[in-house]
Amino acid sequence: MLRVRRKMKKIIFMSMVGMVLCLFFLNLKQLSIDSKVKIQKFVKSVHRLSHDIHMANLWRNSNGKRKHCEIPYLEKMILPTMSNARQDVTCHRVKPHRESCQIADDLFKSKPIGTCDHQKNYEFCKIKSYDPDDMARKSYITCSINQCVLPVYLGQINKNTGEKIWTPFNSDADLVNSIYEIEKQDNFGFFYIKCVLSNENGDLDMSNAFFDQDEGVFFVLQLILLPPMYLNHTEQKKTAEEQINVNIIFIDSVSRHHFYRSLPKTVELFSNINTNTKTKVLDFQLTQSVRSRTFETLQAMFSGYVNPDEKPFGVLAMPPVALKTEELLGKFKEKGYKTLWLEDLCYLWEWGIVKDLRVYDSTLSQIETWTKLEAALLKANIDSLGITLTSCEVMLMNNHNDPFHDLDTVCFNGRHHHEYFLEYLQMYQTHLNKMNRPFFTFYETNVAHEDTGRRIQTLDVHLEDFLNFSRNQLNTLTVVMSDHGNSYGDFLQRSEEGQIELYHPSMFLIIPEKVSHYLGDKKMKNLIENQNRLISHLDLFYTINSLLIGGEQVKVANNNQRFKVTSQGLFDQISPHRTCNDMPMINPNLCICEGFESTVSNDADHVVYAHFALGKINNEIQREYRKHHRRSSTGVGHCQQLQLYQFTNVRKSLNDNMMTLKMNLEVQSGVSNSNETDIFFVTMSVETSNHKITLQQVERISGYSRYKTCADEGVSLPFCVCDITSPHSTNQNHLSLYDLEENILLMQSSIHHIENKCLYLVSDDNHVGLVLYAVNICKDVYFDISVEVQHIKLDISTSLPVKTQVFPGEIQFLTSGVRSSPDSKWSWSYTVNFMELTLK
C-alpha cells in the first residue's frame, strides 16, 4: 500500500507540473522577452527535477532496505584448506545494487553477439600445417590465384624502413616457392597476398576491399601468419635448461564482473579445468586497480613503479617518461627468454606501445617512426612486435584509426581481429617450446575498449579455444587479466556499480601441474589463500620477477614499502587485513572494499565542495583557452563554462588528519534542449583541522570524443562541453550582468560591484559556507586583483590573499569557505585591491 501511495503522489505531482507548463506555454506569446527567458529556465529546472527524482529512486541511500546482485565466482573454485579463510579477511567487495543487474541485462543482453559475416573471406594461399617437421616439405603450402587478375602480389615488411615491399607473381608454383623461402628466414610473422579480383568472379565485397589510388583499382588482402624462425642450433643448446614460460593475456577495459557477464564459455572452461584436471585456475577476486588508465597499470606491472603523489599526465599528452619494460623483461632476457609484445593498435597512430615508449610524434615520417620504434624496443628488451604490425591495415579496413569508438566488431577478411592474434600466439609458443626456448609473451587486446560493453562477447569462443591450448602447455604460467573496467559508456553513467567496476579488474592464473611442482607447496598454498585478499598489479610485478631460476631476489623499492608488498608478491602470504590505505591507488579511484568509503548525502552540506571542484575545472578551461586566444573578449570559446546541475555518488574516507571526498559532478551537455548531462568524477583532499581543500584529480565519466568537432584549439578535450549541433558556429556572446543571475545549485547568489565599472565579485552561500568568484564584463581590459577575506567561524579553503588575473569575459573562481563547526553562525567580509590593464 505504501508503494502505491508513493506512486500516486509522484503521478499527481508530475500531472500538476504538466498543467503548469501547459498554462505557461499557452500564454508564452504574450510575455516579455525577459519573462520568456525566465520561463525557459524554469522549464529546464523542472526537467532536471524530474531527472533527480528518477536518479533518487535509482541511487537510494545505502542505509535503506534493498537486495543486492550476487558477486560472481567460478562454479568450481580452488579453495584454501582453512574453512574460515574468507571470513577472516578485512576487505569484502562492495555489494552490487540490485538495479545494476537490471541495467546490465538491458545494456549487454539486448543484442546478439557481433560477427564478421558481413565480410567475405578470401583465401588465395594456405599453410596446412605449422608443425616444424611438416614444414620441411613444400607440400604443406598450397596457392590458387586463378580468381585474380595477374600478377598477384606478396607483401612483406622492409626491415630497414617498415614499409611494405610488394613482389609480383604470375603462377601458383612461383608463389609457393617464394613463401617456402620466406618461411625459412627471419621474418615478422606474417605476409600479405594482394589480389585484384577478375570480373568473372562476381561482385566485389566492398566491406573487405582496399582502393589502390595509383592503379585506380580495388583489391583484397589475405593475411597469412608465419611461425618464428630466427633461432639457430647454437642458441638452442645454450638455453636448453628448463624454465617457466610466462603467457599474459591482457584484456583492456573489462572488470571482473563484466568478464563473468561477457565470457561464459571461458568461465565454464575455468571451472571444468578445476573439476577435471590437475591444472589449477585461480581467481583473484579482490584486485584493486591502480588507475582507470592502462599506462599506470603497465608501469606497475613491468617496472614496479607507482607514485600516487605524482600528478598524472593528460589523456592526450605523452607520458613524461617511457614505460620501463626492461625492469622486468631485461631480467628474463638475461636468462635466455624470447620476448614478444602483441597489441591490436596501429603503431603509426597515437596509442599503445608507441605512446608507452614515447615514440609517437605526428611530425615524423613513417620511416623515422620505424627507426625510433626499433631503438625503443631494443632498450625495452622487446624482441618482436609480431603481427602487431598488421594492425594499421586492419584499422584502415575498418575506417578507423583506433578501435575505441563506433565499431561493433573489428574484422579483417571475414575474421575477428583477435582471432589472428590468438592463432599467432599459439603458433609462436608451440614453436618455441619445440625449440626448447623459454618465452615471455604479452598480448593486449582492446576488444572491450569501446562504448557499448558488448564487443567483448565476440572474444569468448576464441579465448576459450586458446586457453584450452594454454592449459596443456605444461611449463607455462598463464595470466588472464585486465587493467580496469570500462571507463566510459552507459553502464558507468547509469549505475554506482559501473563506477566500482571501473576499479575492479579481473585476474586469473592458470597453473599446470608441472608449474605447481616447480613453485612448491608453500607458494601454491599462498597463491590459493591470496585469491580473496586485496591485491594490486604491483603484487604481480614481484610475483613474476620471483619466477626466474637462480635469479636474485628483487628488493622492494623504498617507495613501494608503504604498499605492504613483498619481494615474492603473490607467492608470499598477503595480509588478510590489507585495506585500500595500503593500495597503490592513483586518484581518481574508488576502493572496491565495503565500508572503506562511506556514502554521504548530496545535500547543502557538501555542495560547497562540488562548487569548489567545478570552479577549479572552469578556471583551467579559461586558462587553456586564454593561452591560445590572448586577445579574445570572451572568457571561453566553444568549450563552455560548466554549470553544476547536480552532484551524486558522494563518498568520503578518513585517514589521519585528512578526509578524501569523491563525487560525480553533473553539468550541461553539448546537446541543446535535452535532458542529457555530462559527468565528471572528482577527488578532493580536505584537511579536517582547517578545511583546506585540494582538488586531487578530475576524470570524465561521460564520453567526450563527440566534442572533437566543436572544441577550441588548446582546450583539453576531456574538459570540453560544446554545442555539437552547431560545431562550426563562431557566435560567442559577451558576458553580461544578466549571466551572473543564474540560479546556483543549493546556494544563494549575491553580486558585489567593485569600484571599477567592469569588475564584480560574486558570492554564492548557504548555511554551510560560501564560494567566491571575480568577474570581468569588460571587452578590452583585464585586472590584476588581490582579494582578502575577513572571516569569523568560517574556514577558508585556500591561502589568503587570493591573487589572480581576470581577463575579459572571465568568471574566475577565487576561493570557498566552510563553517568551522556544525553549529557555527559564521560571517565574512572582503577587501579588493586591483589594477586595471589594457588588453594588448
TrEMBL record:
InterPro entries: Alkaline_phosphatase_core_sf (IPR017850), DUF229 (IPR004245). One of its GO terms (cellular component) is extracellular space. Pfam families: DUF229. SUPFAM superfamilies: Alkaline phosphatase-like. This is Uncharacterized protein. It comes from Patella caerulea.
